[in-house]
Design a protein that fits this description.
6 strands; 111 residues; Aspartate Aminotransferase, domain 1
Length: 111
Amino acid sequence: MAYDEELAHRIREQVQDVPGLTEKRMFGGLAFLVDGNMSVSASGQGGLLLRIDPADTDALVSEPHVSRAVMQGRAMDGWLRVDDEAITSDEDLRRWIDVGVAYARSLPPKR
């Protein structure tokens, strides 16, 4: 499945003023990186793939339509799948993007 172009556009509108932002195709979707660190992606599996502080995983997966991302058969702390149902409004999308961008900013820049 290809990533959702409309969702990618919605993300792009929300992050266009984030310093150090780049776009890159990865994990079957279109990722938005801050200083080289993945923050959020329009996932090739639908919805968002979101990078978060691993310590926040349990609290965030308790929310509706949010689960740990599974990579190579393993559920990963620090990575979330946020289903389309959780990002229907721009405010909902902004909230999740802010979580991913804040975590990416907390990491050392990649060069």
